[in-house]
Amino acid sequence: MEGAAVAGGFELALACDLITAAYTAFFALPEVARGLVAAEGGAIRLPYHVAMEMLLTAAPLPAPDAARYGLVNQLTCEGEALQAALALADSVQAHSRDAVLVTKQIVQDTRGFDDHTAYTVQDPLSTPVFATAAAAEGAHAFTETAAAIRSPGTRSAEVSGN
């Protein structure tokens, strides 16, 4: 995110799982000032008092404030947001597709629930992933890494299996 995400642009940004923005970027929801109402989640992900101020005054929300409220994951210098976003996407893409998709679903499906209810929603989603080959490989790699940490004399090549 470089520049401004205003009205529909802000709602599009909120639809993203991870948001990288330049320090100089800002978000705005001017719908009320134009006789409209926010839609597409524009008011839902904001803390109550921030949503009220943005919506009722049409005041822009600078990217550092958006980051403080959890709307932006990463801040960059101006002109570097795209590269940082691509690097972030690459780091996510490097993981097991099943684990990434199910984790996203768990985070989305358990939002707003108390712990007990969230666990009952999470367990049926997460349990099948533990039976995949990628999960078995991940557990094996974790065990090897943990063993290396306990045995400081172990070389990294031995830990990675090379």
TrEMBL record:
Originating species: Streptomyces sp. R35
UniProt key word Lyase: yes
Pfam families according to UniProt: ECH_1
BP-aspect Gene Ontology terms: fatty acid beta-oxidation
UniProt keyword list: Lipid metabolism, Lyase
Protein name per the record: Enoyl-CoA hydratase-related protein
Family: Belongs to the enoyl-CoA hydratase/isomerase family.
Gene Ontology molecular function: any one: lyase activity
